[in-house]
Amino acid sequence: MILEQDEWIIDGNFARTLPMRLAYCDTVFFLDFPTGVCLEGVERRIGIKHEDMPWVEHEFDEEFRRYIIGFPTRRRPQMIAALDEAAARRDVRIRTFTSREELTQTLADIPSGFETGDGKEHGWRVHHVASMRHTGRHYE
Q1: What is the pLDDT of residues 64-79, one digit of tens each?
Q2: CB under 8 Å to 89, separation ≥6 — which residues?
Q3: Do residues 11 and 77 make contact, with C-beta atoms less than 8 angstroms apart?
Q4: What is the signed CA dihedral for 51, 55, 60, 61, rounded to 10 degrees?
Q5: DSSP tag of 115
Q6: DSSP E strands, the chain
Q7: Reported confidence tier of residue 91, pLDDT bands at 50, 70, 90
Q8: 3-class SS of residue 62
Q9: Burial label, 117 (beta-carbon count in 10 A; 0-12, 13-18, 19+)
Q10: CA 37 – CA 58 distance, rounded (Å)
Q11: Model pTM?
């Protein structure tokens, strides 16, 4: 039901829902950070309460660590293929970020608006975003 709404943002790289999200979205932000950056990010969050998580991680789950380390060779190729197909088939806009600095700079530029390609500018705020959809109103 969320995907059929006019506007939405879904965060995460969940393989199970990626095909559905790509079928409905118009824009994807792909955070394609180096493995070390991803591992450091998780380690920094250990012991810190986050509003989007109903629990506090007290240690780095070893299965999750292995998932992150294996992501570039196991999961990333399928994700890239799915993003490329969505871009070609449905004209989904894919924006890839390869560093936190690049993402931070892009987010800092947001108040000036976001060119959608149809001549309309939209103000928006995002966190870690995998896919989003709009109908001419603001991303929130």
Answers
A1: 999 999 999 999 999 9
A2: none
A3: no
A4: -130
A5: E
A6: 8-10, 27-31, 93-97, 114-115, 121-122, 131-133
A7: confident
A8: helix
A9: exposed
A10: 19
A11: 0.73
